[in-house]
Write a structure and sequence with these properties.
There is one protein chain. This protein is of the alpha+beta class. The chain folds into 2 domains: about 250 residues, no CATH class; about 170 residues, no CATH class. It contains 13 helices and 10 strands. Strand 3 and strand 4 form a beta hairpin. The N and C termini lie far apart (about 50 Å).
């Protein structure tokens, strides 16, 4: 199967004096795609002191639709002679084509370029994927625990002195299809502002991980608790030249069975039902209600104390209803040299990624269980699906807060929507 891919290269290069900027892009890259890709690359982070950058790959779904697979390549010194410069080669894949390829970013790894020059030009890329045979059993004992955790809606961050390419390639195809379609991965990253579902980090200290992340110590428990390895199932496609990956069928079966318990994974499908076996116990319900009321207090949501009413009010009040930057404005803004440019693009990225009002609650929202209502509110904010109420609340606390002050930007004189962005984000409570 042939897939057409738009592409762009962004980075800091020793052959120019423009800092981080776009080197080249194919003609079909839309302005909103470019803005979202640059925002994701900027959230990748800078190498901590003493850490030498290495080739890595990360992949996230973009708010505007495409799946982006990004190759990160060290460039040595930047144009100011400082070490740690990076280049990002982004491949933009249609979500339908991504599903047909097995929802596996690693099948596109061979299309990633590593070497760039001032005369680089890019056109639409034609990439071939083909069926694969059945996969053998997994080999890394950590993979089993990671597969089980991610399949249950948890995230995994690994302290790794080098990119965890081999381990990530082993884990990814073993995940349920619905998880692979939505989940994000980074074989290595210097920060976690992208909130990857699976990420390797050279230094965990100082990196914020919310309660949705599995305790890293749980990945390295003894091997005695592991089930025996069994043959895996086949996947629909692979990239030409990509090694056959390995899988644990027992864990996959458990993940597929669990898949039916979580809210619908489809982008436009409203999660409504929860499995009765996941009913909240009285003590847990009391704890969840306390945390929900704490969230409502932080957001200054008044009125009824009924949990369904609080959730509905939060969803209604904290969705952005103002104007958005147009495609033309995004293109011009991305080319600005103003120091506020990155901050303005981050505002746009967050508004469109989390707060766009394109997912209203269902008409039968009031009749759902508490877990179902929480899942649907989380879905309305484009958060990753989860069946654990504690995880949902943690995600809501994180999403409905701001890391620091929201300062006006002079760029608003040329891009009026930025004033509306700032007013909306400023009403969010300060992150604790």
């Amino acid at each position: 199967m042939d897939i057409l891919i738009e592409q762009l290269v962004y980075g800091s290069f020793p052959f120019w004096d423009r800092g981080y900027d776009i080197l080249a892009r194919s003609s079909g890259c839309r302005a909103e795609w470019v803005a979202e890709v640059l925002a994701a690359c900027r959230r990748f982070g800078e190498a901590p002191s003493g850490v030498t950058p290495a080739s890595a790959l990360f992949s996230v779904p973009l708010p505007s639709g495409p799946r982006v697979i990004v190759g990160v390549e060290p460039q040595g010194l930047d144009d100011w002679g400082r070490p740690g410069a990076l280049a990002f080669h982004a491949l933009l894949v249609d979500p339908g084509d991504y599903r047909k390829s097995g929802a596996n970013p690693f099948v596109f790894a061979g299309a990633i370029g590593r070497h760039w020059s001032p005369d680089t030009t890019l056109t639409v890329l034609r990439w071939t994927v083909e069926p694969v045979a059945a996969l053998p059993a997994w080999t890394d004992p950590r993979a089993c625990r990671m597969i089980a955790a991610i399949s249950k809606g948890r995230r995994v961050a690994i302290d790794s002195p080098e990119p965890l390419d081999a381990l990530a390639r082993e884990v990814w195809p073993a995940l349920p299809d619905s998880i692979r379609r939505k989940a994000s991965v980074a074989t290595w990253a210097f920060g976690n502002a992208n909130r990857f579902d699976l990420v390797g980090l050279p230094r965990m200290a100082g990196v914020e991980l919310d309660s949705s992340y599995l305790d890293p110590a749980a990945i390295d428990v003894g091997p005695d608790s592991l089930p025996p390895a069994r043959p895996g199932r086949s996947l629909p496609y692979r990239s030409v030249g990509v090694p056959i990956l390995v899988i644990l069928a027992g864990v996959l079966a458990a993940g597929l069975a669990w898949r039916g318990l979580r809210p619908s994974p489809e982008i436009n499908s409203i999660p409504q039902k929860t499995n009765p076996t996941l009913a909240i116990r009285p003590a847990e319900r009391s704890r969840i209600l306390d945390r929900l009321e704490a969230l409502a207090d932080r957001l200054e949501v008044g009125g009824s104390n009924a949990p369904g009413d609080l959730l509905a009010t939060i969803s209604t009040r904290f969705h952005y209803q103002g104007p958005f930057l147009s495609r033309e404005e995004l293109t011009r803004l991305a080319a600005e040299t103003d120091p506020d440019r990155d901050r303005a693009l981050e505002w746009h990225d967050r508004i469109t990624r989390t707060f766009a009002g394109d997912r209203p609650l269902s008409e039968n929202f009031a009749t759902l269980s508490l877990t179902g209502q929480m899942a649907q509110v989380a879905w309305s904010f484009h958060l990753a699906p989860a069946s654990d109420p504690e995880v949902i609340l943690a995600d809501l606390f994180e999403a409905l807060s701001r890391p620091g002050p929201i300062r006006p930007t002079p760029l608003a004189a040329r891009y009026p929507a930025l004033s509306d962005y700032a007013r909306f984000l400023a009403k969010l409570p300060r992150r604790k």
